[in-house]
């Protein structure tokens, strides 16, 4: 706690300095509040103030999260405003008259109305667009899309603009890996492999929207060099007792299914909510690797493997909010999952002096079983301090994860004629793991005046992971411990942080400056070998955001942030996992954190056409690399600190309303990535290539409540570290129909219509030659049905999620 006091002192000094700056600026004298169609505060609504005498534009502003806006007007005269936001009718206010300089005036509260279009005498309500641009993020609205139906969260992410998910479930954004995944605004504190498992087990029916934050403010954890992806789960917006049931079936080569129940009950003092989802998932995978092992002479390996993975998932959430009074609320939330599955795989590796000549082979068969359980608890409190929106909130979290992977292998070496070279080798692994997470945080925000807001907060987290690899081999019909592979790795990490943000609204410009301080203590202990890696370090992460309104239809933005990526738990874990005896992966306990400087310039035209240009430089970049093991003629995958990664990117988003019944959203992401390492496993590495991703979504309104969608994606060849990836592309299609007076919906979807989505990569590492082909089961037809029921009398209060998602974003499900 002593370190936390130091951090808090630094933040207090920063707050004092910024407060002095804040109070030197003139106070606004004209104000108002905008509500949406549900009478909730509407944020990021464009407010344009006009002079009534000649309808000339005076100033422009955006509403804050409380729906409030304000202006500083010194001159006399008559004024009115227009409020506009996508999906709503433009709202024109009454006219107010200022008879004195700096006279105070209040437009009062006004409510937006959802816009509608008349299509062949059918009244069609305008729904949220697939892609929305907000001040600090891009939002993909998932809930209304038929293409997303019956998909997993991992499959939905692949359709987000600028996001790539490869066949090994590695997630990158704007061409860069190191994305921080959040759930409902909270970090997950899990390894990258475990985050992929979590998202693979989450259904699209649970997701409301996905937020892409390429340059987060100081309020967010400093992790994630390429930004943050925040997955917002659905929250019942109606009151009384209500809920929904949903179910879907999918089939490609295998059957998959999921079903869920969501319930909500609210009284004047109490809000109870919960959901449960069950899913059955099965997928086939093909992998083919051709490689050359340099030697005298060279040895050629041709490997083909097929696997079938089955997963059974049980996810749940339950919570209660108690409204102490109008300003104070306390809540308790419990969520978790109980999942298990198995995977069977067969690999055949042909070995010889050339790709056309074989003298021996290795046949490897394996059976893996897994079980992942996690329960998280969150206690939260929120107090509204004044009518200007000042508030304080606190979260206390505890989460415990237990996982167990068991694997059985048989390795059969044979001559070309089929005779065995030696008896079959039998091995097995058992890998129990426990992750214990504790965290607390306090957030405070206050309106110093009508144009200045201050945010501040502190957070501490404690994470302990215990991984025990129990490896055995069969010798003389008895299982014996394999001392070369058995190991135990315990990792402890404590991060203490404090932050502050100061936001100042000028005439046409909004400026936010921030600082986050983090102090990290970590200890990795490879118990079997008595190898301890201990680190203690301080870091400072400044941020700057500037938003300038050139005119009603033109906005400019600039942002800068410094960020950190600490190595994920599985990347630090030095255990060795075999695909076969010539192909394996292992962790690296000596990884250092990587640091990133991010710059971004954005331009928005007509509140819908969006262009952003970014630059980032990463030092000690952590990258997945594939390297040779010359002693064993093997190929292995690991993570290493490559010296430098420089990235340039430009992202353009263009929605187009072609006709009243046909609209399209198009996203183009162009980027240049370069990697440079003077010494990577004995060789220098220097790569660089310009690449692009293009995604286009077509939405057709056939009739009221009946829509069709087509979604296409193309990703050009890309170099990343030691990997050179070939182009990837696919097309999805879907239909959606509302039923029973819009209380139900039926959706049909077909992913990867032409069955062309696959991964092909080769080596970008000097002197290493290999090619890899991967093909997952991607063409899947799905049908989904959702029915909503219950009363709608009282609007429910907030929903809270846990505060440990960042730490859980580094575990398995």
From TrEMBL:
Pfam family, one: CarboxypepD_reg
Domain named Outer membrane protein beta-barrel: residues: 385-787
Any one Gene Ontology cellular component term annotated for this protein: cell outer membrane
Primary residence: membrane
Protein species of origin: Pedobacter psychrodurus
Location(s) in or outside the cell: Cell outer membrane
Secretion signal, residue range per the UniProt entry: 1-22
Keyword annotations: Cell outer membrane, Membrane, Receptor, Signal
Entry-linked InterPro entries: Beta-barrel_TonB_sf, CarboxyPept-like_regulatory, OMP_b-brl_3, Plug_dom_sf
Highest rank taxon of the organism: Bacteria
Protein name, entry field: TonB-dependent receptor
Keyword Repeat belongs to the record: no
């Amino acid at each position: 706690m002593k370190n936390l006091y130091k951090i808090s002192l630094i933040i207090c000094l920063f707050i004092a300095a910024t407060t002095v700056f804040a109070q030197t600026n003139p106070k606004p004298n004209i104000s108002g509040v905008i509500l949406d169609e549900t009478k909730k505060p509407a944020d990021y609504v464009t407010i344009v103030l006009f002079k009534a005498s000649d309808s000339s534009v005076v100033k422009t502003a955006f509403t804050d999260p409380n729906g409030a806006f304000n202006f500083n007007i010194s001159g006399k005269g008559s004024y009115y405003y227009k409020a506009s936001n996508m999906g709503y009718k433009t709202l024109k206010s009454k006219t107010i008259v200022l008879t004195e300089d700096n006279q105070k005036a209040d437009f009062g509260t006004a409510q937006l109305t959802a816009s509608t279009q008349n299509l062949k005498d059918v009244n069609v309500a305008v729904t949220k667009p697939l892609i929305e641009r907000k001040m600090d993020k891009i939002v993909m609205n998932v809930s209304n899309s038929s293409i997303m139906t019956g998909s997993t969260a991992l499959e939905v992410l692949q359709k987000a603009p600028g996001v790539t998910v490869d066949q090994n479930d590695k997630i990158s954004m704007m061409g860069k890996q190191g994305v921080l995944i959040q759930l409902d605004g909270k970090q997950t504190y899990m390894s990258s492999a475990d985050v992929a498992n979590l998202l693979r087990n989450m259904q699209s029916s649970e997701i409301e929207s996905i937020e892409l934050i390429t340059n987060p403010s100081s309020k967010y954890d400093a992790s994630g060099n390429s930004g943050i992806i925040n997955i917002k789960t659905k929250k019942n917006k109606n009151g009384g007792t209500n809920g929904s049931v949903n179910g879907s079936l999918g089939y490609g080569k295998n059957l998959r299914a999921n079903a869920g129940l969501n319930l909500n009950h609210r009284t004047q003092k109490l809000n109870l909510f919960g959901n449960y989802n069950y899913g059955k998932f099965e997928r086939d995978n093909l992998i083919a690797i051709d490689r050359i092992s340099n030697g005298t002479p060279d040895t050629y390996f041709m490997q083909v493997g097929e696997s079938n993975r089955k997963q059974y998932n049980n996810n749940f959430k339950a919570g209660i909010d108690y409204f102490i009074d109008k300003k104070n609320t306390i809540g308790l939330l419990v969520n978790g999952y109980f999942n298990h599955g198995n995977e069977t795989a067969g690999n055949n590796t042909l070995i010889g002096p050339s790709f056309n000549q074989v003298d021996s082979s290795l046949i490897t068969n394996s059976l893996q079983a897994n079980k992942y359980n996690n329960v998280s608890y969150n206690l939260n409190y929120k107090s509204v301090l004044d009518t200007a929106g000042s508030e304080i909130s606190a979260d206390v979290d505890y989460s415990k994860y237990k996982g167990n992977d068991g694997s059985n292998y048989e390795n059969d070496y044979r001559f070309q004629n089929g005779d065995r070279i030696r008896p079959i080798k039998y091995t097995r692994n058992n890998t129990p793991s426990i992750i214990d997470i504790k965290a607390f945080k306090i957030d405070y925000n206050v309106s110093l005046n009508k144009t200045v807001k201050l945010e501040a907060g502190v957070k501490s987290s404690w994470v302990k992971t215990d991984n025990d690899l129990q490896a055995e081999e069969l010798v003389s019909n008895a299982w014996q411990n394999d001392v070369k592979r058995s190991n135990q790795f315990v990792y402890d990490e404590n991060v203490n942080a404090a932050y502050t943000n100061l936001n100042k609204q000028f005439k046409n410009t909004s400026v936010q400056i921030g600082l986050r301080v983090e102090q990290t203590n970590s200890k990795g202990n490879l118990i079997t070998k008595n190898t301890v890696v201990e680190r203690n370090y301080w870091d400072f992460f400044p941020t700057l955001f500037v938003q300038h309104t050139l005119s009603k239809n033109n906005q400019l933005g600039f942002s800068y942030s410094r960020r950190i990526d600490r190595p994920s738990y599985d990347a630090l874990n030095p255990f060795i996992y075999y695909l076969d005896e010539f192909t394996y992966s292992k962790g690296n306990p000596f990884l250092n954190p990587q640091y990133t400087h991010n710059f971004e310039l954005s331009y928005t035209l007509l509140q819908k056409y969006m262009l952003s240009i970014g630059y980032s430089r990463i030092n000690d970049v952590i990258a997945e690399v594939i390297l040779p093991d010359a002693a064993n003629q093997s190929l292995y995958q690991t993570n290493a600190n490559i010296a430098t990664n420089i990235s340039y990117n430009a992202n353009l988003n263009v929605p187009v309303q072609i006709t009243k019944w046909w609209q399209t959203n198009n996203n183009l992401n162009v980027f240049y990535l370069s990697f440079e390492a003077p010494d990577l496993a004995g060789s220098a590495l220097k790569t660089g290539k310009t690449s692009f991703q293009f995604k286009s979504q077509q939405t057709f309104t056939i009739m009221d409540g009946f829509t069709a969608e087509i979604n296409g994606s193309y990703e050009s060849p890309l170099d990343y570290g030691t990997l050179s990836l070939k182009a990837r592309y696919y097309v999805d299609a879907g239909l959606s129909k509302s039923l029973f007076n819009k209380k139900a919906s039926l959706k049909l979807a077909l992913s990867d219509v032409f069955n062309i989505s696959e991964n092909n990569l080769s080596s970008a590492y000097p002197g290493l030659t290999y090619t890899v082909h991967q093909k997952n089961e991607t063409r899947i037809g799905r049908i989904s049905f959702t029915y909503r029921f219950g009363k709608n009398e009282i609007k429910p209060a907030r929903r809270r999620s846990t505060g440990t998602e960042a730490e859980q974003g580094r575990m398995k499900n």
